[in-house]
Description:
alpha+beta; Immunoglobulin-like; binds heme C
Amino acid sequence: MIAAPKIPFSRILLAITSLSILVLAGCAGAPTMVAPASENAAMISDLFMILFVIAVIVFVIVEFLLFYSVIRFRRRANDGTPEQIHGNTKFEIAWTAAPAVVLAVIFVLTWQTLSALATTPADAIQIKVTGHQWWWDVEYTGLGIVTANEIHLPVGKAAAFTLEAKDVIHSFWVPELGGKTDLIPGHTNRMWIRPTQIGSYHGQCAEFCGTSHANMRFAVVVQSQADFDAWVAQQKQSSVVATTDLQKKGVETISTVGCQACHTINGVSAMVGKVGPNLTHVASRKQIASGILDFNAANLHTWLSDPPGVKPGALMPRLPLTSEQIDALVAYLTSLK
Ligand code: HEC
Ligand SMILES: [Cu+2]
């Protein structure tokens, strides 16, 4: 028989410690629901903290009783049969009542939070988000704005989201701003966010939806009311008119190679497709392809050359474009502020 190798306890401890440090380091700077930046996310985080503290207290009491009993009442020499306490009414009542009270407290707190989250504030900005494989269509229904993958919100004001899906189930999740809510084909879900801190927050699809599920990200930009108003005014303008020769060639190319089948550019005739993101103000966005590439000429060039090569499974096909055509398209697209 081969004896199992003896690993010293200090080695095991070292391995566990190093692994924990690695895991924690990996989480550093990642979006977290315990640093809420909105009124609704704070409600969820507060409830989580209360439940966590209750769970820790229960854990400590149970473990203390367990270890105390194991050590204090361990079998000793000359022990006879221990005293039998089966059917002890006092104990039966105690260990039935105590968990019932704890669960009742948790139930009331959870109910209060859930009903507060289910009540959409009356003055909210209305935003419809539609999940597509693998990007987010964003429509400000009251303002007549359509954009993609980047949601702007004024700080302190509530936004009511209507969530739908075009193809499969997706899930809308911005950890710092609110809980996950599914987008389900043929069904409308709702949630609201009242951001309390200016900043840019990371969003992510949280329901596996196919090849590029992990590449289905978005940004929520929380701004002062003045900055938000300026953004709204800019988004409401119709698209920029091409001025340079290269940009004009870009407009020409766009309508000859078939982009209009899938994309809309307000003010450009025939550009009314709805399969892909609205490009009217694509150059005002910080990223393209739902957070995969920063918006700049070089990345646009890479994207247009081979979308599925950049983002696996992307539903924008690789079009037979020449390098000159791509240059013209990039010149036009980068002008669409
Ligand atoms: C068959 C439909 C289809 C055609 C044709 C098509 N696209 Fe797309 N396009 C898409 C889809 C879908 C996406 C979103 C991809 C993703 O992020 O997963 C997209 C994304 C983009 C983006 C990134 C936008 C953003 O905000 O993320 C740009 C720019 C773009 N397309 C430009 C073009 C141009 C220019 C053409 C013509 C040369 C074109 N597309 C042709 C479907 C199409
Ligand atoms: Cu998704």
